Amino acid sequence: MTELLTSAQMRAIEADAIATGHVSGLEMMEAAGSGVVAAILAWRDGRDGPLSLHGKLPRFFGQTVETGASAVVLCGPGNNGGDGFVIGRLLHRAGWAVEVFLLGDPEALRGDARTNYEHWLEIGDVRPLSDCTSDRWIKQTLVVDALFGTGLTRHLPDVVENVLMATANCPRVAVDVPSGLCADRGVVLSERSLPAAHLTVTFHRPKLGHLLADGPTQCGALAVADIGLAARGIAPFKHDQVVSEAVPSDLRKQQGHKYSHGHALVLSGGVGRGGAARLAARAALRVGAGAVTIGCPPAAMIENAAQLNAIMLQAVGDVGALDAILDDSRINALCVGPGFGLSEDRADKLHALLKSGRAAVIDADALTLLSKDADLRGALHGKCVLTPHAGEFARLFPDLADAMDSTPDRNKTEIVRMAAADVGCVVVFKGADTVIADPTGTCCVNASAYHRAAPWLATAGSGDVLAGLIAGLMARGVTPWDAAQTGAWLHTESAVSFGPGLIAEDLPEELPNVLQNIAS
Ligand SMILES: NC(=O)C1=CN([C@@H]2O[C@H](COP(=O)(O)OP(=O)(O)OC[C@H]3O[C@@H](n4cnc5c(N)ncnc54)[C@H](OP(=O)(O)O)[C@@H]3O)[C@@H](O)[C@H]2O)[C@@H](O)CC1
Ligand SMILES: [K+]
């Protein structure tokens, strides 16, 4: 499991390591610079670096080993700039021509950053950042962005934006975080469209901003360097105090008959609106539910029967008919919402489903029904999983959605934690950066980014498949929390495994390959 840290948590981890005598700030800064240089040299030489790399680097461009190598290092006023001075020194030692530029007054540099500034002065000059727009410095040169890291607190100054734009065509390495990117929210604190880094080297653990929102686009590829904290992990924090990356549960099956692997009921809409429920049902069956039944209005029976084989079908006329189906105690997981419809009888049926107390995925139209009806919302219980996309989330939690857009210390993980606490069940806020939280505050991110990027996952019906995966896993007895993170993880993996050209129907069909890979 990889923990994802906020800036404040990273600072606390560093401070604790220093306070307990584990490592000094200067040693960490040296290790940080050294990690970045190792990654740069590996990139330039086209070899695998010592750091594991998430995502794809383009071929190093502009320079060859034969023509020599040059870099400009852009240093900021804090410790990110301090890392920059270390990088300048180590690249110089490796034979590179290095020019260093500084934002602000050198006299204002403090602590370890100042120490490394002084070391650099034994090697070369430091020029004002505003000088770094001339062709003299920036032609075909590697740009090392050490302006701001986890300490960025506000929009970028103009001079920084101008230099970043002027160096847009250079190969670019960002130290810790691309300057301008908020390490907690993954949003860019600039009105301008800043050039992305090709490689970002962060330290100890990825930060939330590397995976949320624009983070992956701005970072390019992501490498994580140890700075002497490996043995300490995330102390003084405990695992449940930090957000983690989504990981799948163990999905190996025990022997048994079909009902010992659970029975999922997927509710469908009326005539001509059954596709979404069929996608969900297929996903639930593929992920291993022993049996899956679609419940549809009587008029839609023929349409569904013509399209289904292994999936069973039951007519659900009124709420009484639904209650009769729910009398079957073997049905242990429900999926409602995809193509369900918004009429009054649908709200009554949703109420009956919730009242049954079974594990239930609430998606799509069912979320819209919830957002309009306080009684329905009040019937949610701890075995529910809500799977809103951004629009549905804003309808369900308008205040939280507003806070996410407007309040700097409210990143998506905080917002989803608050939403889960509010409704008392697991919430899956979908996106390329899906965030999942439970009411106790446990939270993970499933990012379809870097080596798991799957832009073709944004396709009609993809969300219906996710709902079905989670319902199928809950039918197998997986807890709502684990089903949500495993479902989201499998959804991305199936899309990555299938590749471009994917449509929603392909996702369940690709699942066996993914399941075989994780079993082997
Ligand atoms: N701690 C450690 O031991 C280690 C830390 N490490 C490295 O340190 C980085 C964190 O360092 P950091 O905390 O000094 O923050 P950093 O990103 O350099 O910026 C802070 C400075 O920028 C300023 N500032 C902020 N926003 C601004 C704006 N928009 N426009 C203008 N100014 C702005 C802010 O000024 P202030 O807000 O106080 O006015 C302050 O002067 C981290 O990312 C990693 O690279 C590694 O070496 C490992 C060991
Ligand atoms: K930076």
From TrEMBL:
Homotetramer. (6S)-NADPHX binds at residues 79-83, 149-155, 176, 276, 339, 389, 464. Binds 1 potassium ion per subunit. PROSITE patterns: YJEF_C_2, YJEF_C_3, YJEF_N. One of its GO terms (molecular function) is kinase activity. It comes from Yoonia litorea. Transmembrane segments: none annotated. The lineage of its organism: Bacteria, Pseudomonadati, Pseudomonadota, Alphaproteobacteria, Rhodobacterales. Belongs to the NnrD/CARKD family. InterPro entries: Carbohydrate_kinase_pred_CS, CARKD, Nnr, Ribokinase-like, YjeF_N_dom, YjeF_N_dom_sf. This is Bifunctional NAD(P)H-hydrate repair enzyme. It comes from the Bacteria.
